[in-house]
Amino acid sequence: MSYAAYKMMHWPTGIDHCAAGFITHSPADAAAFSSPAPAAAASGPDGDIDSAAARAPRRVGPTPNLVVSAANVLEVYAVRADDATGAVDVGNSSSTGAILDGISGARLELVCHYRLHGNIESMAVLSDGTENRRDSIAVTFKDAKIACMEFDDSINGLRTSSMHCFEGPEWFHLKRGRESFAWGPIIKADPQGRCGAVLVYGLQMIILKAAQVGQSLVGEDEPTRVLSSTAVRIESSYVIDLRDLEMNHIKDFTFVHGYIEPVLVILHEREPTWAGRISSKSQTCMLSAFSISMGLKQHPMIWSAAKLPHDAYQLLAVPPPISGILVICANSIHYHSQSTSCSLALNSFSLQPDGSPEILKTSFHVELDVAKATWLSHDIVMFSSKNGEILLLTVVYDGRAVQRLDLMKSKASVLSSGATTLGSSFFFLGSRLADSLLVQFSCGMPTSVLPDLDESADIEGDLPFSKRLKRIPSDVLQDVTSVEELSFHNKTVPNIVDSAQKISFVVRDALINVGPLKDFAYGLRTNSDPNAASIAKQSNYELVCCSGHGKNGTLSALQQSIRPDLITEVELPSCTGIWTVYYKSSRGNTADNNEYHAYLIISLESRTMVLQTGDDLGEVTETVDYNVQASTIAAGNLFGRRRVIQVYAKGARVLDGSFMTQELNFSMHTSESSLSSEPLAAASASIADPYVLLKMGDGSIRLLIGDHSTCTISINAPAIFASSSERISSCTLYCDRGPEPWLRKTRTDAWISTGIGEATDVNDNSSHDLSDIYCIICYESGKLEIFEVPSFKCVFSVDNFVSGPAILFDAFSHISTKGSGIGDRDATKVSVKKEEATNIKIVELAMHRWSGQFSRPFLFGLLNDGTLLCYHAYYYESSESNVQCAPFSPHGSPDIGNATDSRLRNLRFRRVSIDISSRDDISCLVRPRITIFNNVGGYEGLFLGGPRPTWVFVCRQRFRVHPQLCDGPIVAFTVLHNVNCCRGLIYVTSQGFLKICQLPSAYNYDNYWPVQKVPLHGTPHQVTYYAEQSLYPLIVSVPQVRPLNQVLSSMADQELGLHIENDVTSGDDLQKVYTVDEFEVRIMELGKPSGHWETRFTIPMQSFENALTVRIVTLQNTSTKENETLMAIGTAYVQGEDVAARGRVLLFSFSKSENSQNLVTEVYSKESKGAVSAVASLQGYLLIASGPKITLNKWTGSELTAVAFYDAPLHVVSLNIVKNFVLFGDIHKSIYFLSWKEQGSQLSLLAKDFGSLDCFATEFLIDGSTLSLVVSDSDKNVQIFYYAPKMVESWKGQKLLSRAEFHVGAHVSKFLRLQMLPTQGLASEKTNRFALVFGTLDGGIGCIAPVDELTFRRLQSLQRKLVDAVPHVCGLNPRSFRHFKSNGKAHRPGPDNIIDFELLSHYEMLSLEEQLEIAQQIGTTRSQILSNFSDFSLGTSFL
User: How far apart are CA 1408 and CA 1187, in angstroms?
Assistant: First the structure.
């Protein structure tokens, strides 16, 4: 029996739903929160004038959060706008983009991110519109689950406030006997937040009643005030059966504005019609408006409107003061309210009912089916149409009634799946087919503010960090980038409202999307290394994917691991550390962001080398005053880059350039320890200007204090540690700098503190950076404390940091609330096997706050088993902290009496998950592994060295983790910025090579995997890889607009053509156009030095011929007995249902010589009956699936001759071959397993799956000698079958048996079989193991891989534990999500022999005690489980 595991490696990126709401702050907070704090308010009287001026030009109101969902991923973002005025002091860190409404740039920053156990079907924001209430998010899941979530400040994340489930036996009557439903639940919210409505099971409307805010007149009443500031919550619900209201088919529904009670308007179809009956029956839709009285549970109809077109599909509630409703149809738009109505025809297809007044027509022809809409202002609605155009509709209103509707074209943009307006000046276009855009708009701008922008380069100015719009393919921004005005002038009727309404757009940010992944190929990278072996060899490859659609079609090159571009490498054995330092003489005191490094310090085992980093690296070891006779522990800059400090075991030196100004010996200054025989030596050091923290060999701590005026340092042993008996396991310094240091805000007495640590550079008046220095210390008991430096006053302490709790808070501020159960779980805990927990220690700490005005510090702790704990700080003022806790002294610091007032009581840390798979034992005396960088190739983050080096980029306040496998273990890392290596890096491998590199600049690292997107301006369909010349042939279809009569005449046969001509000769029909897709096969290559993709050759198809498949096949030429590698293309002619289907098989050979005219030449072409949907090579023969027949052909060098055939049921969608076995998937009839016997030359059926299944993709799964068959289907499942003719239930081998079944939750469009890497875990492991990498239509990539039985049993029992042990977001059950979904079709349930790493990944986020307890309950150990995890991720790191 063979077992499998499922793991996602790249989560979905195609955005399905987006919404705007004040989730993390109320609108009242937002006003204070969005305008940045005045930079110079503290610096005297002139500061106030600055701050007043900074606020003046801002026309942007409070900006809400953006909530987006992609399949099962839910994310909340905050919009951060950069003020154009404030950007002056920042210097070159602001964007050079257009300044619009006083904003020079904006970006999205992640607030929280969740992966749910269920796909989000629809989403709404519940908002009551008041100033001081927050909004809630309501999401729905299949079949009828609703969850409401609000942002909880105490955990800095979403918390579920209510869950509503209408499934199970007691709700069966709602389904009325139906099994499958086309749509999941759809939710809409009342604009005043009084209720929400959810449509489930087609015709059941659930009304969710919101809880009332306590209306109390007493403003000071504490509980009332607390309640009113919370978010909107749902209190109760009831069901309305819409069948009783005589509705058969609901198309859309929404709440309208301007009524006292909530009014729900439903668009429904009384009696259905279809395209063939339009002439006699076209106005079939109607509107019904119901007043929802929740107290009485009644819903009287208050008005209705009938005779709406059959193609109406969407309702838009018009905001006040106009109110009413817009009905959007494919060919017309109608406005209805209780009193008036008017409509607008969009094209010549719009029919009007007899006897109605003449309706207005637009001046241009447009179709609005599947358009997405959002209101930019109270009378302008923006549509994003199906071909990516932006249209603006004005509702012309004279104060009493709506006069007419005006539609105008605006810009071209992405093909969107949703649009939402964020506040008064931004909107967001979410897209499944392209990158999603954040766009700033401005209504009625004075033209003087706008610079002259016509080329797109200005908007995408090179931003220094993370914004990187230049990495977005330019076609996404094609017309949106040029800021030109859209004028709403209507020539005929003078517009009563505002005759010159102008709207301008600027794209401010983009979220990358690589979906839908239709197909991908596995090929070599440009900078691949032919000599690499084992795991390093994997980073030679990349996935080249077909993604996007139409004009947004792209070729995406994805890599899982980073392979830096090498500039130069030197052999350098036994290195222990490298550092680069700046040097600036005292006269040049400009804070230059672009300063080059001056020296590179390399520490070897017993000496130190110093290199100058000028035009070239030259060794200056002999001429400098560095201590070159000993190995260096740390080096860095002090006193604002005027001095360099070098710390070695016995002492430290301060250098000015190459001259020493001071030398310190550690052993002289330690009087009390001089009794012991050996002198004291430093073990590790942390530098934060102007302090250096040393951890000595005996575990004690020393602080070197710098003096700015004399540029000297003195040593100091903090008294607080001399008295304490606890051993320190690691320590670090954290420098909290910026215009206003972040940690200061979290102090209890923050409002009276006026800058304590005035440790700013005296000469540096230009920037008002204050910096507070803190010292973070972790003891061997696992306790973490934060001290102020240099006073060493304890300001924050956490008892059990080493176990990795989800939230860290200051222990002393919660003494009073001990009884409420915060953090006293250990008291009730039965003593587990504790011996495993005692030897786990923190070996390294780091804390850093990266750039950005709203950024918050991150805290990192590295455990000695290789786990990295990451925490993100946040501010939370709990209501309990008003109660002063009694100043009694528990064990520890003696000065606790007065410590309570200056503690960072409002500081909390939230654990952030980070996917790092290295597992190894780290001894305590190893050199540091975490290196923080602020600019490598324009990115910031940290680099984790060690056996599996990993990059962690910080983009939009979130981690992007990318491993680097290409050089094996890395012992030292540092950044280098000089003339030849701009924003580069240096690292030393464990083999003893020093490499100077740069990050490949073509890739964008702000994605789950680094990605490079190449615009194709057409839809890519299939791609394959030709390894000998590293070429990628791919099928692309480009939409072309043709005159209708030309299309018809070429489609029809000749005698039909005569009377078609007579039909369409009427004048206006000849002007009609029709869009046809023109197919071609492009052969693309990644240029070696440049990294740019170029098209080397194009093979056009004939008109109406669709290329369906392209593959590289190896055929045996029967006349010469040699193997030839050819490119095979299968096509089909698409000419409507009246013409019999035909197709072609084309074979092309590649030219061997470099300089030949044609890259490929056609060697064979033949028409076949039926569409050629798949081709493959089988032992030198060519297997062709054409229509419902599979033929096997031999190749003579000029002809294909059939040697065998098999009749497939309907239409073959995929073919796979292993040895002489064939697996094919049928479009409706599941999979068939054939074998080819050469002696009788016959294709014979071995077995098939008897069920009906709509196959998407198939592949073989190979585990040693076990062969399994994997298939994915249209209901988002994956099934694994096996062939066992000896088993009774296989009906003598006719039937394939099910080995496992699993619900992926996304359409899997392609499987790729790759050999797994052998891991160190099991020596006797089977080497012949292949995993399947798959891509989905949501933009996700994952793998299904075989696992051995022992691992499977262990992880399966862990998985069953985790279903209950982990609190799941939205209360979703992972077991029901992963259950096979048959969608109402008959299906015998199969075994669930597949483990789900999406659920298992929660194990590492539990605290240490919980991990040990669960491991003990299933009879194993924590280290065993973690090593299984790491073996699996090592075995499947293919890229």
Answer: 58
